[in-house]
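Q: What structure does this chain adopt?
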Amino acid sequence: MSADLRAMIREVLREELAARGVGRSSGTPQIREEAVAIASDADLAAFARRILALAADSKARADIESGRHVFRLAGPGAGNRAAASAEAYERPQPKQNFSPVSFERGLVNEREIRNLPEGITVIRIGKTVRLTPLAQDELRRQGIKIERAKS
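A:
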């Protein structure tokens, strides 16, 4: 089914449900779609800045992570690209095995663990490094192992 046809069906359903008063008070989450046109490196950089700005707001970040705020490619021919890549966009990719990240000293908090690159499976920490309880929880949640230096 083409992206244009899907968009048309969604619009008709929205109008019909709104006319019947269904959806707004039912407590179902509203999905926000944002069209993104990326035709150059400058467009890509602007989009990356937009994502960073949205991630600073915890509610917007949660909406993006849960799929309530999605991004679609806009522009000529984007419908075919968006339809072809929609499944890959929504399906999580398997983690790759990257080299371990090292923390040599200090206190490691949850934010530092959350900001690790995707695919990290091991972190190395120095003898004097301490982890906050939330950092330890985040490591467990992500399935990241800890290797502590012996000396």
